[in-house]
Amino acid sequence: MTAQHRGTAPHHGTAGPHGFGPGRGTGHGRGPGLPHRPGPAHGSVLPYRSGPAYGSGPAHGSGLKRGIDLLGGAALLLLLAPALGAVALSLRLADEGPVLRRRTMAGRGGRTFTMLTFRTRSPLAALPLLLHVVRGEMSLVGPCPLAPGHPECTGGARRRLSVRPGVTGPWQISDRSDLPWEERELLDLHYVDHHWLGMDLAVLARTLPAVRRRRLRRASARAARLA
């Protein structure tokens, strides 16, 4: 990241209001899971293993990650189909605009795709992302989606485009709403360089609890303001 971008905390592709991405970070402390050299810092929540990433190296590894995404994404779509329909219907009945929000994002290899999310400020907004997982545009776990013109899609950080962006990732389970942009960037790049099956499973297992804790903190903060 160049000096001109430090401290400005650009907006992530899947922003925090719907619960599946970090909000704008304003703090400057070190968050949990921040890698040093080459693994995470002490107290990291991510299991670390050296060696080639299983989703960006040989065809066998890439095929394994893709197979998990395809089976997992399809199973979740079937399981959550009633919720998808209910959210879409409620937004349509509200008659306040389109049901889906569309944004152009950079996928694997820099190929762009139109990312769909529900037009609602809740974790349910991210449900349509499962469609992108099944179609092969996204992964269940990966770096946060970014717009094609984002600074972190260029230069040395362009290696983040060697894998598919994720519905969730290390930035999601960091469990901090004030995670600075620099730390989010390092968490994503650490994932790109070192991810493996165990790390993906750990991230998936920790995602819903992290979202739940974040929602409880926000509800407590709102209650405190109204008190």
- Judged by helices, strands and strand pairing, the structural class is mainly alpha
What is the H/E string? HEEHEEHHH
Biggest sheet overview = 2 strands, antiparallel
Query: What shape does the CA trace take?
Result: globular
Mean pLDDT: 77
Helix content: 40-55%
What's the count of strands?
A: 4
Radius of gyration: 17 Å
Distance between the termini: 42 Å
What would your notes on this structure say?
The protein has helices at residues 59-94, 129-135, 170-173, 181-194, 197-226; strands at 100-106, 112-118, 139-141, 166-168. The protein is mainly α. It has five helices and four strands, in the order H-E-E-H-E-E-H-H-H. It has a two-stranded antiparallel ribbon.
How are the SSEs placed, and which strands pair?
Layout lengths: L58 H36 L5 E7 L5 E7 L10 H7 L3 E3 L24 E3 L1 H4 L7 H14 L2 H30 L1
Parallel strand pairs: 3-4
Antiparallel strand pairs: 1-2
Helix pairs in contact: 1-2
What are its keywords?
227 residues; two-stranded antiparallel sheet; 9% strand; mainly alpha; 5 helices
